[in-house]
Amino acid sequence: MRRKRINFLTVNLDMKKDWISCILLVCIFLSCKVIKTNKSLNFPKVEVSVTPIANKSEVWVFIMAGQSNMAGRAFVEPNDTILNNRILTINKNGDLIYAKEPLHYYEPIKTGLDCGLSFGKTLIKSLPNNITILLIPAAIGGSSISQWLGDSTHRGVKLLSNFKEKVAIARKYGDIKGILWHQGETDAYNHESLQYTQRLSLLCSQFRNMIGDTSLPILLGEIGSYSKVKAQWDSVNQSIRAYSKMDARTAIIETSDLKQLGDYEHFTSKSVRILGKRYAKAYQNKFLIYQNSNIIK
Asked: What kind of fold does domain 56-295 have according to CATH?
C-alpha cells in the first residue's frame, strides 16, 4: 500500500509540474501577443531637434504619400528608432527633428512602422558625406486616388492641401528630389482599378506642378500580392506598371514576395524595411547620375 501511495504522489507531482509548465507557456505567449499588439511600445519618448542646414542644396527632400502601407502600420522595434545624424524628418508642427520611426503622425492610434527610415538609411550610403536626407510624411491610411485628386478631407486631413503644405515646408529646408508613392488598396476594394492609370497620371502631374518640377522622380510601389481579392489587387498593379511605361521619370518597386501582417492588407515589419530599401535602390539605379564617381544630380 505504501509503495502505491508513493507512486500516486509522484504521478500527482508530475501532473502539477505539467500544469505549471503549461500555464507558464500560455502566459509567455499572451505577453508576447500583448507586446506585438501594442505598436506604440517602442515609439520614441523624446524628439531631438535639428538646426536647419544653411546650404539648402545639401538637403535632399523626399515626400512620402499614399495610404496606410506608406503611412505605416507595422510593429516598430528598437532598431527602428536609432537615429542617423544625416536623416531628418519633421514633427506635426513642421519643425526639423532627427528621423525615428514612426515618421507619420496623422493617425496616432493606427500609425506604426513605415518605410521611410529604411529608405533613408539605404540611400544615404550612396550620397556624398555633405548630403542630408529629409523625409516628409504625407500619407493617410484608407485614402483613394480619387480622394487625392479631389482634395477630399479624409480622416481629418485635406489630402492635396496637406501635400501642398508639406511642399512649402520642404522648400524651406532643402531641395525636393522625389516622391515615394504607395497607394491603391482602397481602389482595388472599390473595383476602380480600370481608371487607376489615368488617375495616377493626373495626380503625378499635379504633384509635379505643385513642386514646380515636371521631371521630378516619382517612385511607385506596387500593392501586395497577398490579398483575399488578389485579382483586384493585381489589376491595380497592372495599372501602376502601365502608367510607369508612359512616364520615364517613374520607377516601379516590386512587392510580390513581401509578406502580410496577418490582416491581408499591410506588410510585416521585415517587409516594410525591405520595401524601403527597394525604394532607395530604385532611386539610386535610375535617377542618380554619376560622372567620374561624383554625383551630378
From this structure: Rossmann fold (3.40.50)
Which pTM value belongs to this model?
0.87
pLDDT at 238: 97
Q: How many residues comprise the chain?
A: 297
If we measure between CA atoms, which residue out of 138, 287, 147 comes closest to residue 203? 147
Q: Cell numbers of 13, please?
A: 507531482
Contact 84, 120 (CB under 8 A): yes
Return the higher-pLDDT residue of 9 and 285: 285
Name every residue whose Cβ is closer than 8 Å to that of residue 214 and which is 6 or more positions away in sequence.
208
- Mean pLDDT for all residues in the chain: 89
Q: Which residue has the cell 496577418?
A: 262
The radius of gyration of the chain from alpha carbons, rounded to an integer in Å, stands at 23
Q: What is the DSSP string of 265-297?
A: SSB-HHHHHHHHHHHHHHHHHHH--EETTEE--
Instruction: Please tell me the distance from the alpha carbon of residue 170 to that of residue 175, in angstroms, as a whole number.
Output: 7
- Nearest Cα to 223, choosing from 241, 244, 248? 241
